[in-house]
Amino acid sequence: PNLIKHMLLSAPEQLWVSDITYIRTQLGFSYLSLITDAYSRKIV
């Protein structure tokens, strides 16, 4: 469920969101995890 659906952001650092993905390489898989500030959309 979307727990922040009605949250109004007015400044940076009120809400961080994260995602993880994997990337295939010659040696197998590498994992990439990013945390993003939802207001400024900058990677933390």
List key phrases describing it:
Integrase_cat-core; mainly beta; two-stranded antiparallel sheet; single chain; RNaseH-like_sf; 2 strands; Integrase catalytic domain-containing protein; 44 residues; nucleic acid binding
Structural class: mainly beta
Helix content: under 10%
Beta strands, count: 2
For the termini, the CA-CA separation is 24 Å
- Tell me the number of helical segments per DSSP (H or I, 4 or more residues long): 0
Series of H and E elements: EE
Neighbour order of strands in the largest sheet: 1-2
Q: What is Rg?
A: 14 Å
Runs in which pLDDT lies below 50 for 5 or more consecutive residues are: none
The fraction of residues assigned to DSSP E strands is over 45%
| Total individual domains | 1
Shape: elongated
On the 0 to 100 scale, the average pLDDT is 95
Largest sheet: 2 strands, antiparallel
Quick summary:
0% of the residues lie in helices and 45% in strands.
Description of the molecule:
It is a single chain. This protein is mainly β and 44 residues long. A two-stranded antiparallel ribbon has the order 1-2. It has strands at residues 16-25, 28-37. The mean pLDDT is 95. The protein is elongated, with a radius of gyration of 14 Å. It has one domain. The protein contains no helices and 2 strands.
Question: What is the secondary structure topology, with strand pairs?
Answer:
Layout: E1 16-25, E2 28-37
Antiparallel strand pairs: 1-2
InterPro entries: Integrase_cat-core, RNaseH-like_sf, RNaseH_sf, Transposase_IS3/IS150/IS904
Protein name: Integrase catalytic domain-containing protein
GO molecular function: nucleic acid binding
